[in-house]
Amino acid sequence: MSSSNELDKLIRALQIQPGIGQRSATRIAYHLLERRRQDAVELGNILISAMHNIKQCRLCRNYCDNDICNICHNPERYHSRQLCIVESPSDVAAIELSNNYQGLYFVLHGHLSPIDGVGPNELGLPQLDELLSQGQFDELILATNPTIEGDATASFIAALAAKHHIKAISKIASGVPLGGGIDNVDQKTLASSLMNRRPFSA
Amino acid sequence: MSSSNELDKLIRALQIQPGIGQRSATRIAYHLLERRRQDAVELGNILISAMHNIKQCRLCRNYCDNDICNICHNPERYHSRQLCIVESPSDVAAIELSNNYQGLYFVLHGHLSPIDGVGPNELGLPQLDELLSQGQFDELILATNPTIEGDATASFIAALAAKHHIKAISKIASGVPLGGGIDNVDQKTLASSLMNRRPFSA
To answer: N or C: where does chain B have the smaller number of CB atoms within 10 Å of the terminal CB?
Structure first.
C-alpha cells in the first residue's frame, strides 16, 4: 500500500495490460505522476474514446472507426479476388506490413474452441458464408495460426468454402523462418518443413 | 498504420508509459479491445482522476490524496525523531516495505542537477529548512541514491542540516547486497564495501 489510495487504485488498474505486473505498474504510475501528468490525462481520454468508438467492420470484422474499414472500402482490393482468413486483427496488421498481399481479409476474432463456448457463430462464420456466396472470390487463403486449434478452424472453413465453388483454397506455409538457423528450430516445425519440401532448381 | 485511426492514436498514447514501445503498445491495445473494454474504460477514468487528484503532502512532499499524507498524519511516527531524505516517492514505498524504519520522510522529487535547472528550490529545500528549524528531529538519515548526483545532493543537505543542531546526520550503507555473490558485484561497489568495512566479532 502506498501513501495515496488513488495511487494504489492506479497501480492496480494499470495491471489490466498484458505483461504489466505490480512492479512495472508502480514504475509507470510514478513516472506519469512525476513527469507526464498532461499526457496521462490524454491517454485516459483516448482509452475511453477508443473503447467506445472502435467497432468491427461490417464486411471483414476487422477493427475500424466507421461501418466499413479502409481495406474493404478500397475498390482495388477486389481485383485480386482473394480472401485471407485470419484469427485476429493484429494478423491483418502483420500481413499488411509484409507488403505481399493485395486482397481482402476476414477476421475470425479467435479460433474454434468448443470448451470455451467458441463455435462457428462466435467466429462470424455465417457472415463468412454469406460473403462467399456472393461469388466475389477465386481463392481463399487460410492464415490461421499453425496450432491444433488454428488448424482445426482452417479445416472447418475449408469445408464451408468447398460448398461455394471457390476455385482454390490454400494455407500459408509453415517451416523454418527466413534468416533463422535450422538448429534453432523446434522438432515439429523442422519435421513439417521436411514433409512439405518443394522441388528446387538452381 | 492499422485499420482504425482511433486504434493508431491509442497505440501511440500507450507508449508514454516507460518500457512500452510500439510492439508492446500494439499488443496491449488489441488485448484491451478484444477482451477488456470495460476495464480499459475504467483505467481511463482512474488515470484522469489520479492525475488531477494526487498531490504532494504539505509536510513531506510524498504523494497523497489530501493535504497531509498518512505517514505525516500518524503521531507515532514523530516518536523516533528521525527524518529520512529520499529522492522519490517510490523510495518511500521501498523503505516502508523493508519494515525497519518508524520515522518520517522528506521527498526531494529528484536530485541537484544545475544543468537541468534543478536547484535547491525545485527539491523543496526551503521547505526542508523550515521543517528542520522546528527542532522535531534528532537524526537526519540521507537515503539519496548512491550516484554522483545523489551524493552531491546528500552533501548539500548535510550542510543545511548542520545549521539546525541536528544531533546526528547519517547516510544509508552501500555495499554488497545480501544474498548476492561477491563475484557478481561491480568494482566500485566492492571497493566502497571494502573501504567501509566494520569491526566484526563472532
So the answer is: C
